[in-house]
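The methods section describes the discrete structure representation at length, but only in general terms. An entry of this sort, consisting of the sequence and the corresponding backbone structure tokens, reads as follows:
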Amino acid sequence: MGTSAASSGAGSGVPFDPPWLDDVLPDIPGDGKPPLPEKPNNDGEDKPQPNEQPNRSPAVAPRARFSNARRNLGEFIRTGDREAFRSAIGHYSRSGMGGARRVANRMRVSTRSAANLFHVLQSTRDNSDPNISEWVRTLLARSTSAQDIVNEIIRYVAPNGGSVEENSCRDSMAFALQDLLANDPNVDLLQLGDESIWTLIESFLGYEASSRIYFDNGAYFENKEFSVQTVLRMNEMYDYLRADLSAQIGKLRQKTPNATRKQLQEIL
């Protein structure tokens, strides 16, 4: 699998969530916005309100926040031990990211992008949103090649700035769409059934979760000691994360089988 550029990970004494995170949330396609937007819309509409009051200092990360996660990731890379991977993810969530709720908050660019992708693909199939239908007509008048459609879906749905989160979303969406095409080269990306859309969402979020872990622990993954095993283990990591996401999404689908876009954003 591919990944976004790695770093040494966020340090201690800094907020769990960077202050600019809300600024890079993707726009919601449709809803009166013009098709094929050429530049970001920064009018601030449809952005969720911060969970914390403006006058409250944000929670900051502890020292050595990723140390236990990295130790277990090292064991996983060396041996492929799935329990070591589970321990690494547990430490990453609890100590590194401040708990499951903060992980979900940190990933809100990813989850809004996933909800947007689901809405756009359903709307293109059902012809249920006039603005998205116009986007489809404009797209098909220009090109019908699968790669062009992939590129335009990403351009329309994903955030289009230069932050780590925005770059990661675009990369993850590209990987997920390319995987779908690799499995079925004749698939019509603008006429996907719900099962295929959910499969795509699972794949996208799996890549996003892997990318987040890789970014926060990237320097450790790039240790020359692990060079032979790393590619193999990164693929295994994605498979494990996607399997877990698939199980969770399956439960969510049972509870909310016909979720609206807003509900999707809340439950993903």
